[in-house]
Fold this sequence. Notes:
Chain A contains eight helices and no strands. By secondary structure, chain A is an all-alpha fold. The longest helix of chain A is centred in the N-terminal third of the chain and has 37 residues, at about 5-40. Chain A is flat.
Amino acid sequence: MPVTEILTALVGGAVITMKIVVMALPLATLMAFTAGLMRISEHRSLRWLAVIYVEFFRGTSALIQLYWIYFVLPLFGLSIDAVTAGVAALGLNIGAYGSEVVRGGLLSVDKGQTEAAIALNFTPRQRLWRIILPQALVGMMPPFGNLAIELVKATSLVSLITIADLTYRAKSLADMTLQVEQIFGLVLVFYFLMAQALTLGIRALEKRLGKGMQRGGLS
Amino acid sequence: MSEFAIEFENVTKKFGDNVLFEDFNLQIRQNEVVSIIGSSGSGKSTLLRILMTLENIDGGKVLVNGEPLWHRLHNGIWLPADERHLHRMRGQLGMVFQHFNLFPHMTVLRNITEAPIYVLGQSRESARAQAHDLLRMVGLEDKAEAYPAELSGGQKQRVGIARALAMKPSILLLDEITSALDPELVDEVLEVIRKLAAEDAFTMILVTHEMYFAREISDRVCFFDAGKVVEEGPPERIFNQPEHERTRAFLSSFLKAPSSNT
Ligand SMILES: Nc1ncnc2c1ncn2[C@@H]1O[C@H](COP(=O)(O)OP(=O)(O)O)[C@@H](O)[C@H]1O
Ligand SMILES: [Mg+2]
């Protein structure tokens, strides 16, 4: 098979992979912040709920989570299409790891910041949203970048629930043509480029969020 | 208005099993400038932190302008203060911190306007105008758009003072505000406090190791030791004729090694 044809087929798969990334990323972010904020809540029940979520999704295999959502939930009358299942499993899984980043980021902000915010009579909510979170976000960006790359790589799991993503197409093309070195070489490049694009995006975000801030020293 | 800006009545404060204050009493009159001196660990910061609602108390009462700070009256019984009560009480107090604690993600101007706008509900324009006035007062009108990281320690602390004043507190708490500064930057900060003290519009409690400064601006000096006011009085008397052995020892240790106690 000519390389251009292989390339076309792979680009089609890469688009599907990117779609899944683009949909799972907001879900992961939402879960990360929700569970991360719950972890530092004053309410014990909220903390516990978040711990259960995080430990469940970190402590079990992402593939089995995916199978559960796609194959087992329908047995309980909740059937969803493959893409939704893939997005849900990946978003929930990465979100669980992300919540640890959120929690750590929030706790890493100097106590003096909260104290200054109290002295200026900000409400607890204002302290979080106006003072603590904007500072914590900057430090969260590098680990978020790592998780985004994990997400890109983990999307290959959805090839196992009938989605024709990059990995799925590569595998079937390779089975068909036996041009394994070309196909898997191109696939490597595709995944690498997607990860790089995300990394660059998150770096830019980090720089913007960190405007004026500088590591070390008293402020 | 109450004759006293601040009253500690038989206050107890513990950290775990460690009792710092026991039956602690102190009264500060309206517009009085009080310096607190004493060795490290004697409870000076904790006193200010209790007033700023950063530390709770374990017993007794603290009154701010005649009203209990850490208690609220509910159907005739005193309950521990809730966030709403604390929010109401805090408006009377402002604090400047040893380590500045400016918000590093905001410009100097926003550091000063954020709370007036979002806590007091001032308009953006009036908050900005006020911030520029305050920056002029502390000699930093040209730094409005700078970030804290671009300022020297002395400049940061002057912003810290402006930020606290923007909330129009009647009581100003200053916790070793020059201790983290290089010696050559101390005076520019003290100059601002000197002006404020001369206005006689604030009740001020300053914890300080700058003895000459405490002597110059205070109406009263309190010497703290192990959670007790060992000796207090007009600065001339405390510095010239300390009555207690502990006070004498503390002051003479200062004469010998002025910087060893910061
Ligand atoms: N958050 C805290 N937890 C435990 N002990 C504390 C805490 N804050 C202060 N202390 C203790 O209380 C005492 C007084 O501290 P502090 O008020 O900071 O003294 P000063 O400001 O006079 O140096 C010290 O022994 C200190 O170790
Ligand atoms: Mg102290």
